[in-house]
Amino acid sequence: MSKRVLLGLALALALNGAAVAATTGTAQGASERLAQAVKAYEAAGAGEDDGEGGADEASRFTFPPVGPKADIDRKSLLTSARQSLDGVDLAALKPDQRLTHAILKWSLDERLEGLSFDEARMPFSTDGGFDVILLYRANGMHLRSEAEARKWIALLAQGPEWYAANITNARRGVATGFVQAVPTAQAVLERARRTAATPLAEDPLLAPLRNLPAGIPADRQAALLAEGTKVVTDKVAPARAGFVTFMETEYLPRAAKSLAVSDLPDGQRYYAFLVRRHTTTTLTADQVHALGQSEVARIRSRMEIVMKQAGFQGDLPAFIAYLRTDPRFYATSRQQLLEKASEIAKRADDQLPARFGTLPRLTYGVRPVPASIEQGYTTGRYFGGDPKTGRAGGLMINTSALDQRPLYELPALVLHEGAPGHHIQTALAQEQTGVPAFRKTVYFNAYGEGWGLYSEWLGEEMGLYRDPYELFGRLSYEMWRACRLVADTGIHAKHWTLDQAKACFLDNTALSPTNIDVEVARYVSWPGQALAYKVGELKILELRQRAEKALGERFDERAFHDAVLLNGSLPLAVLEAKIDAWITEKKKD
Hints:
single chain, mainly alpha, two-stranded antiparallel sheet, globular
């Protein structure tokens, strides 16, 4: 039996009121050891900023340490934390402490195994990387004082060191053959060129300094902007140009010819780890591939039913071609696309109190993806906010290539990235009280992306899909995630070509060709991540159906959603144990 299965069983027993501490001394000792483990884990950078706006206040103005020494230090702290956990008597802990223990144990094992592959050697992908972190930070950044403005300028001034440290890591990747594939390297190079060519007047890094609070005198505002402009010109611009040169002359010529991560040194073991990491299960690549094929067949059957409800007389390929090309399904301006997304978001907000017992106090806004990175960027993304720093969450909408952004897909996108999707989930995790800080920011892909996809499904019950076209858009998005299971494993475990990977999307979804190209490029450069969505969604739906069957008329959707969300992000085995315990308690009511 696997360690994760044992972990789930142990947590289930614990949450159902298994043994209590025999003595106060035992309980105190267990609590202290758990606290030591938490302290070491958080010191190792748990919840470190991923660049997308989710960092705590202190880390807004710092870069996380990178490089071999930083990883050695992390490994030492994480190993210490893991050793502390081994000595904890679970029976002596309170229920919420046992939950902390389960989350921490899974995360520690995953992070330590990840460090064993020296993943820092590959510091960028088509979907992100060290080179866009400053852009992500700038988006939604509100500088509240002159002191904060100076911290931002100081962070910009550290740009050369940040670029240099990550390029050094990438050079180690080149030297050891642990590199991205040629298409990924080419895409990152093109992104780097666009970023380096950004006109100073349009540079997003200076936007926070152009929007300083009125309480700062005008002459000081002008001086701060001038200082920041000089730093971008003298320091950031040369660092950006140096990255372009590195990608052109060193990285691209030695990028991997195979798309499969399994072809890298120790790649087969690495991909097996990535499948476990992103699904938080023990599923193999072959099992995930088969699951994807099964889901593709199921969803396609329903798509054909909805197509007929729309009154279309042809077959599914003809309907998809119609949806991809008829102008009625596309916005005519960037602003119109943003306004449509905003209108959908407010209709969703109107339904939330009926579906959720607890809602976050933090709001979110609808924003465009920054123009400097929109080309090759995904169609939408959520950036976490922070009520302490006055930053709302952000539903980011890619407003480029309007003829590739169909409106019938927009409701599913908004539900997934906004509310009740990532915003509700992320903000409620941040607003937890009485838990260690890491539990507010830790993120397990299968849980988080599974919840986002479940939110698209929930949109049907909420009445958010107003016609067969929007419902077909939801099914197309669900099919997209099912095809991900097939394509990701096909590329990295079965050595598929790009055309083979794209076939599932072209044949079964209404996604535009541009979106398909972007998405498949993402799966090449970020192996395993695409597997999280469907695996997580299917588990949440399974748990809901289990609860509905067990509780019958006593099933309360609002209470179920609270049970899923109010403990923050969880590995799927831990979530399952938590919901099973919740069902048991509800049966007693």
